[in-house]
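$ run holo --ligand "thiamine diphosphate" --emit tokens
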Amino acid sequence: MNEKELTKKAYELRKDIWKLIYESKTGHTGSSFSCIDILTALYYDVLKQTPETFGQTEADSYIQSKGHAVEALFAVLSDRGYFPKEDLANYSGFKTQYIGHPTNKVNGIEMNTGSLGHGLGIGVGIALAAKQDHLAKQVYVLMGDGEQAEGSVWEAAMAAGNYRLNNLTAIIDHNGLQISGATKDVMNSEPLAAKYEAFGFDVKTVSGNDPAAISRILRTKSAESKPQLVIAQTVKGKGISFMENQANWHHKVPSKEQYEQGLAELNSRLEEL
Amino acid sequence: METKTAITANEVICNTLQEIAQNNPQLLVLTSDSRGSASLTQFITRYPERSVELGIAEQNLVSVAAGLARAGKRPFVFSPAAFLTMRSIEQVKVDVAYSNTNVKLIGISGGNSYSNLGSSHHSLQDLAITTAIPNLEVYTPADRFETMALFEYLATSSSPAYVRVGKRKLPDCYHEPWENFQPGRAKVIRQGHDVCLISAGETLYSTIEAAKLLEDQGISTCVVDLVSIKPLDTQLLHKLSEIFKRIVTIEEHSIIGGLGARVATITAQHTGTCQRIFGFPDESAISGPQAEVFDYYGLSSTKIAQNVRSFLKD
Ligand SMILES: Cc1ncc(C[n+]2csc(CCOP(=O)(O)OP(=O)(O)O)c2C)c(N)n1
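-- output --
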């Protein structure tokens, strides 16, 4: 996809997420809007994986460690044909498999996440196996910046550096917010770039709500035999004015008025594009 | 589910701790990006210097609490029950229980509170895990009066303890404030002679409702509140097993290692009363709206009554 198509796609997906959360009355709204451009870059431009090849050992892997932003993942997977869009009508419903976190009962999802701080370690395992089996696949792991407080993230980072896993790409959705407020006030994890460099990563920073820019960075493989970290500078709630940079939109559900206003904003942005 | 009062356990705890904090300068509240979910904003606004935020780091949360307690503080630790009793369990075992530090661990949004968020967020094994650890008291209060009394007790006790609370607004199971809370004491809250129902925490209310339904059908039903999961009221359980031929336990927990199992261990070694354990089966629980999930697993008041009836016919 070209730059414009990617941006457009990300806004169309925002409409799907907005609707999904509004209708089911549950969801991690700000978190999903924050990372949707990253997922768009991955699923429409970067990942060597299709609904058909998903699960085959050669296919690239994606692990969403910040599992709570599952609405973004569901929107992308259904749009890419991993499962029918109609299935999401039962999102969060009785006995549904489309629950509020990623589960591998759903086609396209490799691992069950939701408890923060697991994804990078899982990524290390999949990347190690690929090395052992001489597979040319890449493993991508998406984490939150608040999530960086988990000690397990750093245990995994140490292992990734130790095994020089250049087939592992960690991405941090660096929106500066978590549930209780600004990450720098809740538990400061900075300087993230310097920390990951010290753990043996090749670190890059990108404008995180620009899918084309993210795609370019992710496609540029580093020459060094090091795992990569992409720090995606994002805005939590990106795309709807009253939601942007507001910690309280972490898992807030829009009212009817808010839904309509937000939808109008997304539509007018799409018209501009 | 059914709500009469409009207050959650978290709100009761926040109010009670604010009262206690006035006369207890050592009392601290520790959170892991959980202050909103724990409804602690009021406490933290009022006593900013008495709160410690650890970020999304539940293991460190518990170790830091143990250190603070060792140094004379009275930390109350708040984190979702699923993470506090799984992610942090070795810290709970070694730094709190084994080292005997005065830490009160409050597992919020316990049991099936996060129904639609899936197994990562359910804590349906927390009682099994925590009761297996020596030197750790375990409680699950059922309503506002009991919660208040429990926290007044916890503020004065020096024992490590784990408390599980849920997310829902709590209907009253009792009619008035408690004089005091006694660890290791269960309460008979309804007399009856045909069958004895034992529950605790948020399922106690549905159990009381079920008892009323059974009463309407001519089955005289005793209801016991087993708020103190550990220590256990062995004496009362012995007595109940002497009086009743049939005991049913009801819990928002896996049937493995929870309240029912605790009761069975005691009664099996006494009279061997016939018992049924109503709880969550040994599977990753289904997701969905909580009331429907509870009904599916036979934990709504109507299903409890129905299943007790068929147990009595067996
Ligand atoms: C181990 C664990 N602790 C706590 C939570 C509850 N929780 C869900 S999302 C969240 C905040 C995440 O913040 P961040 O990583 O910055 O992600 P964002 O949504 O801001 O992108 C928390 C604390 C969890 N899911 N897992």
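-- notes --
Chain A touches chain B through 28 residues (CB under 8 Å).
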